[in-house]
Design a protein that fits this description.
This protein is an alpha/beta fold. It is 38% helix and 20% strand. The chain has a single domain, classed as P-loop containing nucleotide triphosphate hydrolases (Rossmann fold, 3-Layer(aba) Sandwich), CATH 3.40.50. α2 runs parallel beside α3. Bound molecules: adenosine-5'-triphosphate and magnesium ion (MG). Adenosine-5'-triphosphate binds next to α1.
Length: 143
């Protein structure tokens, strides 16, 4: 049982990567699926816990930019005996802006949101409690 914590800007390709690599094996937990929830953070943690109590592996697909954003996820995963892997989507902001611009409708976010996330982004480190770190580069993953 493992929890994969995705970290990366909007448009970096996180959801695509989940769909291509992990949709068949890992439960998808994402605040993007909780847009109408009054307390998405609480709901997300509950869904994560339910999956782990059921013995399922999980992908947490948010931008998860800060150490603080990731801490509760890592803590719960370890508490439930899962290994925790950080996936850092190391894609330059210019490319994320380009990919974001290519998205249609609801998936597309304002450019300003990427600049805000880029400023807050803290690259994941093992000190946070990850068992392992993976890097997804510019030309990896996807389609
Ligand atoms: N490796 C890739 N190379 C080129 N384009 C890609 C790649 N991966 C994804 N894309 C495209 O980039 C766009 C953004 O991808 P995706 O929706 O997976 O990003 P995301 O990281 O989940 O963004 P968000 O945080 O806003 O949900 C999509 O149109 C997708 O088809
Ligand atoms: Mg996404």
């Amino acid at each position: 049982m493992e929890v994969l914590v995705f970290v990366g800007l909007q448009g970096a390709g996180k959801s695509t990567f989940h769909r291509e690599r992990f949709a068949a094996t890992h439960v998808l937990v994402s605040k993007d699926l909780l847009r109408n929830n009054r307390r998405p953070q609480r709901r997300q943690m509950r869904l994560l816990d339910e999956a782990l109590l059921g013995g399922r592996s999980v992908v947490v697909d948010n931008t998860n930019p800060t150490v603080e954003d990731r801490a509760a996820i890592i803590r719960l995963a370890r508490e439930r005996g899962a290994s925790v892997v950080g996936y850092f989507f190391d894609v330059p902001i210019a490319e994320c802006l380009r990919r974001n611009a290519g998205r249609a409708g609801r998936g597309r976010v304002p450019d300003a949101a990427l600049f805000i996330t880029a400023r807050r982004l803290q690259r994941p480190t093992l000190d946070e409690g990850f068992d392992r770190l993976e890097r997804v580069g510019f030309d990896e993953g996807g389609r």
